[in-house]
């Protein structure tokens, strides 16, 4: 009787300045992971990947990541690879806190491993990714691609990179690579990796699809009718309170600008 090998998907943070080979290293890991774990059959990514042996799902909105992966007992595995992560998911700061956004980050990051998903992200900043992303990182890697490698050697050299196993979320080990990191290199030359992806075709992720004010307003008005909320004649603050209640009840949070659009739509239509 055959025994199914159980793999534990790892999370990689590939960090460094522009032009140091972050996307190149991410593409290398996709092939390496598939080689180490032949059960990897799908990729979810916001970059253009060429030659992946499996299904490639293009990610345009963060919500799509909720569908990434497979049932933990299926024996099937996938990879989620996000380029320029902090542009899509800014690290939470004082005064910059979207409850729905960070609830989604926590939900996605907590379930990726459970859904048999490896995770790779690239970023230019050490703490650019949200803390819920950094908490789950197994390896921090810093590629060292130089102009000499690309221009003078024409890519006929492996990509060297430092590997760190972080002890916390600050990735402070990066401050002393000689002490805390191991220098490794790809098994393929850079020239072999370059044709496997297109760096110019990274899709800038957004949290949600474009806001459809007509559709959202219609759903809101139907909900109000079902709950006997008569908006016509209510003062503005009461209408906003009902809008807040609707967002909480339906888990359909929108931004302040989008709320203004909804209120404007309702006013033009004579609903308030």
Q: Percent range for helical residues?
A: 25-40%
Uncertain residue segments: none
Q: Quote the beta fraction.
A: 15-25%
Would you tell me the structural class of the helices and strands? Answer: alpha/beta
The biggest sheet, with number of strands, parallel, antiparallel or mixed sense and barrel status, is: 8 strands, mixed
First and last CA, distance: 69 Å
What is the CATH fold-level name of the largest domain? Rossmann fold
Domain count: the total is 2
Oligomer: single chain
Tell me, rounded to a whole number, the average pLDDT.
Answer: 89
CATH superfamily of the largest domain: P-loop containing nucleotide triphosphate hydrolases
Task: Please give the CATH class of the largest domain.
Answer: Alpha Beta
Major sheet: arrangement of strands:
4-2-5-6-1-7-8-9
The radius of gyration computed from the alpha-carbon positions, rounded to a whole number of angstroms, is: 23 Å
CATH architecture of the largest domain: 3-Layer(aba) Sandwich
Q: What's the number of helices?
A: 10
């Amino acid at each position: 009787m055959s025994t199914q090998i159980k793999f534990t998907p790892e999370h990689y943070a590939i960090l460094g300045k522009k032009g140091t080979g972050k996307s190149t290293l991410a593409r290398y890991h996709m092939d390496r992971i598939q080689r180490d774990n032949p059960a990897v059959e799908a990729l979810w990514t916001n970059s253009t990947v060429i030659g992946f042996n499996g299904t490639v799902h293009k990610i345009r909105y963060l919500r799509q990541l909720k569908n990434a992966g497979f049932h933990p007992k299926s024996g099937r595995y996938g990879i989620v690879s996000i380029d320029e992560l902090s542009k899509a998911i800014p690290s939470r700061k004082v005064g910059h806190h979207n409850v729905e956004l960070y609830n989604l980050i926590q939900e996605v990051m907590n379930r990726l491993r459970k859904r048999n998903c490896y995770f790779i992200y690239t970023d230019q900043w050490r703490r650019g990714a949200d803390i819920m992303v950094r908490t789950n990182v197994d390896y921090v890697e810093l590629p060292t691609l130089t102009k000499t490698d690309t221009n003078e050697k024409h890519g006929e050299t492996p990509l060297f990179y430092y590997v760190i196993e972080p002890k916390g979320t600050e990735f402070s080990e990066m401050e002393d690579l000689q002490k805390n990191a191991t220098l490794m290199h790809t098994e393929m030359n850079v020239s072999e990796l370059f044709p496997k992806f297109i760096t110019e075709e990274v899709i800038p992720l957004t949290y949600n699809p474009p806001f459809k004010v007509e559709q959202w307003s219609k759903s809101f008005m139907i909900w109000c009718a079902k709950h006997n909320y008569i908006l016509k004649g209510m003062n503005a603050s009461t209408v906003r309170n009902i809008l807040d209640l609707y967002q909480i009840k339906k888990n359909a949070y929108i931004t302040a600008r989008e709320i203004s659009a909804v209120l404007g739509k309702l006013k033009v239509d004579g609903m308030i």
